[in-house]
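Page 42, continued from yesterday. The earlier attempt failed because a stray header line got pasted into the input along with the sequence. Redoing it now with the clean sequence only.
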Amino acid sequence: MRTAGERSAGGQIAGAATRASASGGRAFDPLAVREDFPILRQKVYGKPLVYLDNAATTHKPRVVIEAIERFYENDNSNIHRGLHALSERATAAFEAARDTVRRTLNAADLREIVFTRGTTEAINLVAQSFARPRLRPGDEIVISTLEHHSNIVPWQMVCEATGARLRVIPIGEAGELDMKAYEALLGPRTRLVAIVHVSNALGTINPVERVIEAAHARGIPVLLDGAQAVAHMKVDVRALDCDFYAFSGHKVYGPTGIGVLYGKVEHLEAMPPYQGGGDMIASVTFEKTTWNRLPYKFEAGTPHIAGGIGLAAALDYLDRLGLEGRAAHEQDLLVRATAALRAIPRVRIIGTAPAKASVLSFVIDGIHPHDIGTILDRDGIAIRAGHHCTQPLMDRFGVPATARASFALYNTRDEVDALAKGVARVIEVFS
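This time it went through. Structure tokens are written below.
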């Protein structure tokens, strides 16, 4: 049972960390933050859980869990289609969530915020509705070596269907974008640049402002894959002036199955719908269908209503925590972990770009990353091992896979030390 003092003025449960932040602006405290995440209290194989797989998915604070629970307990109904009280409340909550996303991205207009199932669907939407109708044989789409498969395969599909071709920006040994090569790739047949904001495999933060400026100077639109960015930095789509921006709820402490596509109104207005069905129509006859207004013409069928509400709760939670403290904390963890692993013989870090988010990929000479992950798991340490849906990037560095530790606001220095100790034990086991 929680007291009334634990509820914010809006009736939401205010977690321990957000109460501390609101009550005095004190330094960021990851231990207080951890109190807001019930899943972190468990043990794995009798050891305290050390969860370092945040680039794959983040855990959910209690405020998100309870927002979803409240919706299903009190307001569950379909939206936009009912005149009864539950439907009106559900619609109001879902559209309020859209406005929360708009504020988070600093988008100018609610019509620019399209709910999707995640970053992958958002990119596919742009590929099929924006790019495919405009592409002709010989046209070009520019991506980079750093891309997740979700920002490679959709473009390959539309290129195959239209006769366009994919051009790939190379990267340097540190995992940084080769900007000179990028600018040389931009030409009269370039129709779109689609590039990751933050690499999920290396943590590289791309200079997206320069990427966009160079493309726009030639009249080329830009899509940013922001799946790994929104949780770690301020994203202002108007300041960036990107044409499209995509991210996923589950990477930013929200639910799975919900994501966002931001698109400039002029692009979205000109694009045909990606899917057909209910709610995306204005009228239907057997002879002709007309489309609903933005953003609904891209939201066919019943959306993930609880997911949208949960995503808004997650974004509000991050906003109450404040960006500066949590970003500095995550960078401190990255610096500490990088130094600790570099000090261990046989460990090689993959991806050392000067600008990095809190992702640390590494290999150990003579030990497969899957073995690293398995042994660490027995110590309660959860990392990711594999190609991270970036097989071309792994090929670039001549490795089949890496072990990847990725840090979030609830991780601690002690957990970094546990990782280093675990990696040293992996080497002992195989020696």
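Notes: The longest strand covers residues 190-196.
Reminder to self: strip header lines before submitting.
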